[in-house]
Design brief:
By secondary structure, this protein is mostly helical. The chain is built from nine helices and two strands.
Length: 231
C-alpha cells in the first residue's frame, strides 16, 4: 500500500504539468493571407483617409488597394483556411445578440476564431469599405457616374435644342456628383467609427481572456482551447 501511494504521489505533479502545458500550447489560427489582408487594409485605409484632402493620386491608389484587398478577402472567405471561412464564424443575429448579452454580464465564452460580435463587425466593415471604394470609383469615373446617376430627361428631345439638352445633362451630372461625394464621405466616416468599435472590442476581449489578440494577428498563433472555449 505504501508503494502504491508513493507512486501515485510521484506521478500526480507530472500529470498536472502535462495538463498545464497542454492548456498553454499554441495553435495556428490566422493564416498568412488573413494576416497580410488585415495589416495591409490598416495601412491602405489609413493612407486613403489621411490623403483625402491632400493628394488625389495617393488617395486614389490607396482606395484601389482597399478595393482589391476586400475582393481577396471575400474570395478567401469561401476558399481559405478553417478560421478564414465565413461558414466558420458567421453565426446569425440570435447568436450575436446572445454573445453581446453575455459580454455585458461579463461571462462570454472565448472563441478561438472570430467571436459572433467580431464576425458581425467584419461583415459591417466589408460592406462599408466596399461602398466607400465604389463611390470613390464613381467620383473618378465620370462615365460611370453619368450613367448611374444622370437625371431623367425633362424636355422632350423633339422640342429641345442642343443647348437645352447639354444644360440638363450638366445639371444632372453636377447633382449626381454631389450626391456621390456626400455618400463617399459618409461611408468613410462610418468605416472609421466601425474601426473604433472594432479596436474597443479587441481590447476588451484581450483583457477578459488574458490574450493579446493584436499580437495573434501578427504571428498567427493563439493559446490552445481550454475546456469551456469554442474552437
Amino acid at each position: 500500500m505504501k508503494m502504491k501511494t508513493k507512486k501515485m504521489t510521484e506521478t500526480s505533479p507530472c500529470d498536472a504539468g502535462t495538463g498545464g502545458q497542454a492548456l498553454q500550447r499554441k495553435i495556428r489560427v490566422w493564416d498568412p493571407l488573413i494576416r497580410g489582408f488585415h495589416w495591409g487594409l490598416v495601412v491602405a485605409f489609413s493612407v486613403a483617409f489621411v490623403s483625402a484632402e491632400q493628394s488625389g493620386a495617393v488617395h486614389e491608389i490607396s482606395g484601389y488597394v482597399v478595393a482589391g484587398l476586400v475582393a481577396i478577402r471575400l474570395i478567401w472567405g469561401f476558399l481559405g483556411s478553417r478560421y478564414a471561412r465565413f461558414t466558420q464564424f458567421l453565426k446569425g443575429p440570435k447568436a450575436t445578440v446572445r454573445y453581446l448579452r453575455d459580454m455585458v454580464r461579463g461571462h462570454e465564452r472565448r472563441y478561438l476564431g472570430h467571436n459572433p460580435a467580431g464576425a458581425a463587425m467584419i461583415v459591417a466593415l466589408l460592406i462599408s469599405l466596399s461602398g466607400t471604394a465604389y463611390t470613390g470609383w464613381l467620383m473618378r469615373d465620370q462615365t460611370g457616374l453619368t450613367s448611374s446617376l444622370e437625371l431623367p430627361q425633362i424636355v422632350t428631345p423633339a422640342f429641345a435644342d442642343e443647348d437645352d439638352e447639354a444644360r440638363l445633362r450638366g445639371v444632372g451630372r453636377d447633382k449626381g456628383a454631389g450626391v456621390v461625394a456626400e455618400a463617399h464621405e459618409t461611408l468613410a466616416n462610418l468605416t472609421l467609427l466601425l474601426i473604433a468599435g472594432h479596436l474597443a472590442g479587441v481590447a476588451l476581449a484581450s483583457f477578459r481572456h488574458r490574450e493579446n489578440l493584436a499580437r495573434a494577428m501578427v504571428v498567427g498563433d493563439k493559446r490552445g482551447p481550454e475546456p469551456d472555449d469554442i474552437a
